[in-house]
Specification:
The chain is an alpha/beta fold. The chain folds into two domains: 285 residues, 3-Layer(aba) Sandwich (UDP-N-acetylmuramoyl-L-alanine:D-glutamate ligase); 127 residues, Protein-Tyrosine Phosphatase, Chain A (Alpha-Beta Complex). Helix content is 38%, strand content 22%. An eight-stranded mixed beta sheet has the order 4-3-2-5-1-6-7-8, with helices on both faces. A six-stranded mixed beta sheet has the order 12-13-17-14-15-16, with helices on one face. The radius of gyration is 21 Å and the shape is globular. One of its GO terms (molecular function) is tetrahydrofolylpolyglutamate synthase activity. This is Dihydrofolate synthase / folylpolyglutamate synthase. Keywords: ATP-binding, Ligase, Magnesium, Metal-binding, Nucleotide-binding.
Length: 422
């Protein structure tokens, strides 16, 4: 098989079945690795979950460990342009040939044991990372936490980002059920860092805590915070044991309060695990952007993968308070399993930002379906138009003060249209 065929073969494995005993999922990949002669816990893990921001947390940890010259791998999802994005170490993404070789070797095993797509990717990542002799691996949860295939690991540290309503069909229809699922990554004796949470979520976490649980404002303080249109400046203080690590005069080249919180939470976690973290490593990481998370392009055009009410609130606050844009043209689409009313309520609250809201659907990979039309139907009495299924053959151009928001899976379309707009 060539690379395209190999990638398609893995994606054809399908998705998990939520109608079976979910407790099997955290065991299956680990047991299969052991059967193939691999120790699934040979690495020092950082285990990361959350409703929004877990990808940013994971990448920031990866960047910090890389800056500290540790050999580290990053397993994250979803991928945007290539399945190779799910398998990354200090030297970059897995090569096409290495991916082909792994798929050729293990695809019959995946079919024999009926692994689904995410399990197969996790298996391949850990086998690949083993061949690279890595010390640390950052594991981003797929969905939830308690029954996720990544939850076999005994990490050095677990991190939980902000929790909000999501994936009701998988995780439950209340914030308490969702929090309970996320709390499943907390392990006995293991340190867990959490973003500050609502009272309901915090209580669940405290009830489920089996190790040492530290919330954001118990670990981190910021002083001299100043917003700019390219990022922000601040002094960061991290409480680590009996000491306070100081990181003065940081320039974080990332927009939004959420990016600030995620960056600081990642710094706190790595500082605790390593015992010390250099100012130089923090500064180097702070000026590295995270693609399509509140990313500014020439125009100016802003792209962000907001996909729930909380992340759209963060986006709107950034446009309003940080960038101070007016008369924004918003292109927006999300997947069909999102909280449409929550998103619509936020867009309505910030209706003063928009000159027009252009809602669209788009071709999606595999079995996934975009939900633009459902979102459009919730945008009553707003300057919204529905564009139908959007593609780059249409005469769409991104003019100054355009914001593109929504699903990761719409980003290839955004890039295609952005290139045509230059």
């Amino acid at each position: 098989m060539n690379f395209k065929e190999s990638a398609q073969a893995i994606m054809n494995l399908g998705v998990s079945n939520r109608n079976v005993d979910l407790s099997v999922y955290p065991r299956r990949v680990a047991e299969l690795l052991q059967n193939q002669g691999f120790d699934p816990n040979q690495f020092k893990f950082f285990h990361v979950t959350g409703s929004k921001g877990k990808g940013s947390l994971s990448r920031t940890i990866f960047q910090l460990l890389t800056a500290e010259r540790h050999k580290v791998g990053l397993f994250t999802s979803p991928h945007i342009f290539s399945i190779r994005e799910r398998f990354e170490d200090n030297d970059g993404l897995i090569s096409e040939q290495d991916f082909i070789n792994l798929v050729n070797k293990y695809l019959p095993l995946f079919r024999q044991y009926e692994l689904h797509f995410f399990e197969a990717c996790l298996f391949l990542a850990l086998v690949y990372f083993s061949s690279r002799n890595l010390e640390y691996v950052v594991l981003e949860v797929g969905i939830g936490g308690r029954f996720d295939p990544t939850n076999f690991c005994v990490p050095e540290c677990a991190l939980i980002g902000h929790i909000s309503m999501e994936h009701r069909d998988f995780l439950g229809d209340t914030i308490q059920k969702i929090a309970y699922d996320k709390a499943g990554i907390m392990k006995p004796g293991i340190l867990t860092f959490s973003a500050d949470q609502s009272h309901e979520v915090r209580k669940i976490f405290e009830d489920e805590n089996k190790g040492k649980l530290i919330f954001f404002h118990d670990a981190v303080s910021l002083e001299n915070f100043e917003v700019s249109k390219n990022g922000c400046f601040f002094d960061l203080y991290v409480k680590s044991g009996n000491k306070v690590a100081q990181f003065p005069k940081i320039f974080l080249k990332r927009l939004s309060y959420a990016n600030v919180y995620n960056f600081c939470l990642a710094v706190a976690a790595v500082e605790h695990v390593l015992g010390s973290l250099s100012q130089d490593s923090v500064n180097k990481t702070a000026v590295q952007s995270i693609p399509y998370r509140m990313q500014l392009f020439d125009g100016p055009v802003l792209a962000d993968t907001a996909h729930n009410g909380q992340s759209f609130l963060n986006l709107c606050r950034t446009l309003d308070e940080w960038l101070q844009w007016k008369d924004v043209i918003l292109y927006v689409s999300v997947m069909d399993n999102k909280e449409f009313q929550d998103i619509a309520d936020v867009l309505a609250e910030y209706r003063h930002l928009w000159s027009e809201i252009r809602v669209f659907d788009f071709e999606t990979p595999g079995r996934k379906i975009s939900g633009g039309i459902q979102l459009y139907e919730k945008l009553d009495n707003m300057a919204a138009v529905y564009l139908g299924i959007l593609d780059d053959s249409q005469m769409v151009r991104l003019v100054p003060y355009t914001c593109w928001a929504g699903s990761f899976y719409s980003i290839p379309l955004f890039e295609s249209i952005r290139m045509l707009s230059l």
